[in-house]
Design a protein that fits this description.
Number of strands: 11
Number of helices: 0
Strand content: over 45%
Radius of gyration: 13 Å
Helix content: under 10%
Largest sheet: 7 strands, mixed
Length: 124
Amino acid sequence: QVQLVESGGGLVQAGASLRLSCAASGLTFSVYAMGWFRRAPGKEREFVAGISRRGGTTYYADSVKGRFTISRDNAKNTVYLEMNSLKPEDTAIYYCAADASVYAKTTPIDYDYWGQGTQVTVSS
């Protein structure tokens, strides 16, 4: 049974940093590209960042470019999202997802497995 479990969310003030983790089990982690998505209240789920299966290629939404960094440790079956200079508009539930492809995609429908999400709230 495939499981993706996110952690690291919380309530922070604007300008602060958080590091999200997503631990995967039940799959061969190194053959999956990984993505982070988020869903803000009243909005659709949106792509945040993606990383290729070996970690050599990363992608970011324009809204987080320069502030967020995605990385992975295939030995630990874990993908991370380092979030710096957080803004109130970053408030959302953050989800990690696994895509059985070499390179990460930006559309949710392309992903095979999803975590339950972790809440990130940024106060002004």
